[in-house]
Amino acid sequence: WLLGSLGLASWSGPLVAVAVAVVLTVGILMLLGPRLDALQLGDETALTLGISPDRLRLGLLVLSCLLVGAVVAMAGAIGFLGLVVPHLARRLVGGRHRALTPVAALLGAVLLCWADIGARTLLAPQEIPVGIITALVGAPFLLLLVHRMHREAS
Fold first, then answer.
1. Which of 11, 37, 46, 126 is the most buried (most CB within 10 A)?
2. How crowded is residue 11: how many other Cβ atoms within 10 Å of its Cβ?
3. Reported pTM
4. Closest Cα to residue 4, out of 138, 132, 131, 135?
5. Residue 86 is part of which domain span?
6. Considering its fold, how many domains does the chain have in total?
7. pLDDT digits 0-9 by tens, 61-76
8. Distance CA 3, CA 17 (A)
């Protein structure tokens, strides 16, 4: 959880390529929004609407693996953002994927920037790994979220 860092990030060729891949992926996911919404209703409903759930899931898995691999290769593993951000975004805009996807992407970017600023300034001139900051903020938030979900379910 503590391996990620933005300390060596610069707008060089590989980072630009990853940024373009992220933007393209968000665009693809927005186009797939109605299919993802149908998939949320269950496999039978999706099949009734002419969507192959297994094929869609496989495509999303391949797309996710490629993108996560590229991003982790650039910045390392930065924990808790992927666990917390989707829940925050869903609370902000609801479950419709055309709105949820760009909001989650932007919210993740903003929270990562804030965590990086904190990592660089809290003990300046020494830099804390950004994963420590995301864990310190993300873990309590995730516990609060799980507690709320459990309370709402009962």
1. 46
2. 7
3. 0.85
4. 131
5. 13-153
6. 1
7. 999 999 999 888 888 8
8. 22
The reply to whether 139 falls in a domain is: yes
Q: Does residue 135 form part of some domain?
A: yes
Q: Tell me: the pLDDT tens digits for 84-130? A: 999 999 999 999 999 999 999 999 999 999 999 999 999 989 888 88
User: Interior CA angle at 111 toward 107 and 112, to 5°?
Assistant: 115
- The residue with greater pLDDT, 1 or 30, is 30
**Residue 7 maps to a domain:** no
- For residue 2, name the pLDDT band (cuts at 50, 70, 90): very low
SS (H, E, C) the chain: CCCCCCCCCCCCHHHHHHHHHHHHHHHHHHHCHHHHHHHHCCHHHHHHCCCCHHHHHHHHHHHHHHHHHHHHHHHCCCCCHHHHHHHHHHHHHCCCHHHHHHHHHHHHHHHHHHHHHHHHHCCCCCCCCHHHHHHHHHHHHHHHHHHHHHHHHC
Is residue 1 in a domain?
Answer: no
